[in-house]
Amino acid sequence: MSDTERARESIERFQKQIGLLREEIGRVIVGNRSVVDGVLTCMLAGSHALLEGVPGLGKTMLVRTLAEAVGLDFSRIQFTPDLMPADIIGTTVIDEAASGTQRFEFRKGPVFANIVLADEVNRATPKTQSALLEAMQEHRVTVGTKTYEIGEPYFVLATQNPLEMEGTYPLPEAQLDRFFFKLQVPFPTRQELHTIIERTTTGHHVEVNAVLSRADIVSMQELVRSVPVAHSVQDYAIRVLQATHPDHEEATEKVRRFVRTGASPRGAQAMLLASKIRALFEGRFAPSIDDVRASTAPALRHRILLNFEGEAEGVSTDAVIDEILEQVPESKA
Amino acid sequence: MSERSSLAGLGRSARWTGVRLRLGAGLRRGIVWLPAVLVYAIGALTVIKVATPSNAVESALLGIGAGMLLAWGALVVYTIWSRRAPNHGAHCLDRYHQLQGRLVNALEFARVPAERRSPLMRAAIDDALEKVGTLSPSKAAPLTIPKEAGIVALLAAGLVGIALLEVRVLRYVPPTASSFKPMVMTADDLELFRDLTTELEQQGKDAQTLAAVRRFNQLIEDIAERRLDRREVFKRLATLEKDLTKAGEAEREATEEGLKGLAHELEKSDLSKPVAEALKEQRLADAEKAMRELAEKLKNKRTPPTKAELDRLRRALERASKASQAKNQSLLEQKEALEKERKRLLDKKKKQDNSLSAQDQKKLDQLDRQLERLDRETQKSKRSAEQMSELDRKLAEAARDLMKAQGASAEDLQSAAQDLNRMAKEEMTRQQKEELLKRLQEMREILRQQGAGGQQRMQRLMRFGRKARGQSGGPGGEQGGGKGQGQGVRPGQITPMLVPGEGGGEIPMAGMGQGSQGAGKPGDQPGGGGPGGKEWGTGHDANVGGESTELKGQTKDVVAAGVDTGEGTASSEVIYGAAQRGFVGRGYQKVYTDYQTVAERVMEQDEIPPGYRFYVRRYFQLIRPRE
Description:
The structure holds 2 protein chains of 2 kinds.
Chain A: H1 3-26, H2 33-45, E1 48-52, H3 59-70, E2 74-78, H4 85-89, E3 90-96, E4 102-108, E5 115-119, H5 126-138, E6 140-143, E7 146-149, E8 155-160, H6 173-176, E9 179-184, H7 190-200, H8 214-226, H9 231-243, H10 253-258, E10 259-261, H11 265-281, H12 289-300, E11 305-306, H13 308-313, H14 317-327
Parallel strand pairs in A: 1-8, 1-9, 2-5, 5-8
Antiparallel strand pairs in A: 3-4, 6-7, 10-11
Helix pairs in contact in A: 2-11, 9-11, 9-12, 11-12, 12-14
Chain B: H1 3-51, H2 55-81, H3 88-97, H4 102-111, H5 119-129, H6 137-140, H7 148-164, H8 187-203, H9 207-224, H10 230-245, H11 248-266, H12 273-280, H13 284-299, H14 307-351, H15 358-404, H16 406-468, E1 494-500, E2 506-513, H17 571-581, H18 586-605, H19 610-622
């Protein structure tokens, strides 16, 4: 079997595995295909997602279902203002052995799971929020002088409620930048609501099976990284990223007027990785500009910071991104 | 198909799509911007056609239009050749065939060296190459005509319509300088011809002659008023000459011929010899007188002619009455004989197969010429017979009556004298016509010479005319004759004349009055040194009748008349004086008449070429005495 055939086979396997995973999740989660794909994209990219939506839209259910479907450890942290960093990363306790000897022992916190749901992450204090910082970025936790590795794959899903801003602590820019995607969970349609009501108000119970193994996830993550990107596609992603900066020549009118800070290079990374995954989802061997365009909004919406005027005018970052996608040419001489 | 060739095919498709995209963009941009150019062109063309701007404005409008057209062309070319993304054709194909960037990726991965291509890159290339066969550049990049093309077509039609539209603009065209150049004659010459025509008019009794004179007079007046150009003047002269000469010459010759024949027969009688001599010399008045004297002789019973004389006279009258007919008969007989001979020669020629001996042919030619001459003479003789028919009849009656009674014959001769009188009058009319004809020819020659001499000659003639009248002309004007002297000029009729002034331009000046209707009324105001007025004076001396006679005085009328002794100033002095003061005065008139008479006689008697005769006559015309 040639390399090309092997590559084809790996792509086909990826597609099949993703199909299985979607199907399994779909058994529990009604609709929200884009959110599910976004979450899967973040997981396969080896990064983290920030889910934003009103309560009751099934965010926790989605994460839990995903964890069960891939057979990974799952932990849920409900962020509250009084939540301390130790509450999430763990704490050192005195452990008395049977022999009577006592020693300090580190008790791992909920971050030490493959999939972590940080529920309503903006309700915790910045100190606690930043506790997630090292875990999310480095996939390890340092307590005292000792560093503890977090097993792969590691995937943090944070949620936040856009309505109840009273008594919340908006995530700092540095922390937001560490989220691969910011996914907005839409309100279900009438048909979806019918299905949700039927499933949740009857004795209907669905047992989620693990359709993928940890090794599969890691293998898939490796495959994602090996997907080649054409220069023009990469160039497009970069130009879109540059266009988010108000002082850049390609910046659009809205960017110049309403944006305080554009996206960091992580934004371009996120766009391209997401494009690769999207191409793989569709059985293609390389991403296209359309893939980049589809990935731009979730990858950049939390990385673009609006200025006071933008906030005052109620301009959404999605509107800014839409304008950028509309105006930045797909190819440039 | 190998991967390389497939990739080449993919590249070609992508490039061709790119070319079509460029062309399409050029077409779109061209059609979108063309209305601006066309609208301007319509506006500019309308302005040019309707407002008829100056050349500078028109050039500016055209320049702007050309600039716009050039800019439009440059824009289209720039659009077509502007720099594009390397794979814009492949992008277009991807978009049209919904290939999700497969073609762009494949083309870019193909540029990566083969050893550096990852398996997924190769798989991506293979994946794209599978689609090569289905690619359609023409559909992916269609060269569609934009909707603005309709506007362009409408505007272009409008432009063509305006270009074809003929806008008639009433434009004031300054009148071109008239090419009419009137024929100019000097006042002196005009006066000369006026005098001549007046003379002819007074003499003329015949209506035809008077009409011709009036036409000639009108011609002179038209020239004086500068109503005719050179061509028209010569045309009218030619018409007049033609009318005068028509049939006159033939009649004159016929009459002369008849009278000569008559004289030839009448001189054979002593009684009729004086008549014959007068007739021979064409002195018809004398002939009439001689004929009346002959009639008186026949009536005179105191000294009657002898029988022999009467017999000779009778025979002479008989022959004379038949002279014309006899001559005519003789001519006819000659003609008949010649025609007979000619017919004989022609028959001979016919018999000899249309050939004659050289001698006979020569004779035949001579006969033809003689016959032609005889024809002419016969015609002439016939006309002569017609002219003389009345006189012949009277003479024949006189001859017959002479045999019976001398008194009756005398009456017949009186009648013949009357007929001669009629012929004399006709002769006079002819002479007047000839005189008029001569004047016409003179005028034509003068005008011709004047035309050849140009403006300078005209100036000289005008100066000469003034001097001839004893006036001194300034360089740019002419003094009027306004010194209270009538001079036979109608002061109201001033001939405007342009003469060259000092600066070379033409200055209107008052010429001599051209009137010829008798002496003008002497003005009662002394004339100034300036030009003459256009009207004569209206006042008069309060003492017009002169001083009243002093009755108390012892006065008596005395008449003193000088006797012309033949003495006086010598001719040379008179001529010298005329040269100094002008050709005026009684003394000069006498000298002039003497010289002119001699000159005319010499010209009549000696063989002087007509051209020289003209110059001599012209000379005498110019130096003729002025009143």
